[in-house]
Amino acid sequence: MAPHAAQAQTGGEAATHDFNIPARTLSEALADFGRQSGMQVNVDADEIRDRASPGVSGRMSSDQALNRLLAGTGLTWRLNNGFVTLQPAPQTAQASGDTRSTVNLGSLRVEGQQSGGNGGFGRDGSVGTGGAAGGADEIFAAPRAVSVVTREEMDRTPARHAADLIAEVPGVTSAVNRLNPGLSVNIRGMQDFGRVNMMIDGMRQNFVQNGHQGRNGQMYVDPELLTAVAIERGPRSNVYGMGAIAGSVDFKTIGPEDILNGESDRIGARLRATTGLGGEGNGVNFLGSAAIAGRLTDNIELMAAYSRRDIGDYDVGTKGDDGLANFTFTGADGLETISRIKYASQLQESALIKARWTLGDGHVVQLSYVGTWLDYEHVSDTRTGLLDENGSPWKRLGTSSITSENFAFDYNWKPDSNWINLRLTRLIHQKCPEGLAGVA
Predict the structure, then answer these.
(1) Closest Cα partner for 149 from 233, 227, 248?
(2) What gap in Å lies between CA 231 and CA 145, rounded to an integer?
(3) Which pLDDT value is given to residue 211?
(4) CA distance 294 to 306
(5) What is the share, in percent, of the chain residues with pLDDT greater than 70?
């Protein structure tokens, strides 16, 4: 039992006794206390040797009598299964003259406020991960197969490709070509054709690429503008799980609460930038973003953010079990091992705008815009034959350009009630075309 355990009184007065213990050695005083109170005292003989007690006299509780007996002795006591145990008192207790290690408190009431996250735009019946108010602790709110990737975890292992965001989530992967910035989430072996509902702030992303070996179900997202990723494995009965037999993934973007430091702040900004150092950059030319948020009134918040990602060709790892047998192809000199991945250059620019209006009584309205623009090398699938003239198992087909835009209107009503949490999302406009030009 740890010392200084706190006990809350549940009502009723402690039993009192008549004590008559004169000043004497502590060992004799404790013996008298045991006889007069009916309690057994456990003590190390070395601890009470050469110690004296001032004694106690009068009708009082056993707690009060024991405190007076031990006053000035440098010892404290605790009650454990009906036995009184003595031990050296902490310095703070000695200074205050209080020798008790058990503190009696009045009736306590502990209250908390559930975090809705993202200004009340946490997913109804799901994991509320949006904004600084959300958090991974909410995965324990219900017995479901739920995982949350927080901003802290994203920064711990910066993502070169959006697939890196979910690389450490159990049962979740992304079976895409890393030369293509598109993301197709695989949950428990299932993906594409609507099996996984992929979203940005609750807005479904179902881009389809037609043609030979085209994909049915991929999306484009910028890791710089995210605050969390909420993943639910398995079918769900709510609106986000409709038709998605494998599960859902919601990429939550940053909000004003991620930029402003508390309710007292009126304006705030965030700058982030990363770049490689010469030849050691390994294709990382620039990764960065800028965001600014303001609170015009107590009820109106605005936020705008811009991000840019510029990456190029990179070298594969050379340490440990790298599995380079998968990168061995037939070249001019026979079998050649690929150590540099070519045609990996990508330029991505993204923008995010949010306007939030808190109406009171739990009503919140938000307008949001998320856009991203991509240019990257369009290549063939991996070939098993000869390498091309640049020593790559991929053949360059041209340049692809992607534009992904989402406009949404959100309404959330969450009054001071555990029975009501209404959220409506209207996807005003969505655009995601792809172009292929300059076939080599």
Answers:
(1) 227
(2) 8
(3) 55
(4) 16
(5) 71
> Which among 249, 251, 129, 253 is positioned nearest to 191, based on CA atoms?
249
Helix, strand, coil percentages in the chain from 3-state DSSP, rounded to 5: 15, 45, 40
CA separation (Å) from 403 to 221, 285, 377, 439? 11, 22, 15, 20
The token pair that represents 271 in the structure block: 């700058």
Count H helices, E strands: the chain? 6, 30
Q: Which residues, other chains included, contact 158 with Cβ-Cβ below 8 Å and sequence gap of 6+?
A: 164, 223, 274, 287
Indicate yes or no: pTM above 0.85: no
Angle at 64 between CA 60 and CA 65, to 5 degrees: 75
The residues, any chain, with a CB within 8 Å of residue 277's CB and separated by 6 or more, are none
Q: Which domains are seen in the chain, by residue range?
A: 6-105 (3.55.50.30), 118-437 (2.170.130.10)
The percent of residues in the chain predicted with pLDDT above 90, rounded, is: 17
Mean pLDDT of 70-86: 79
Residue 74 contacts by C-beta under 8 Å, 6 or more apart in sequence?
A: 51, 88, 89, 94
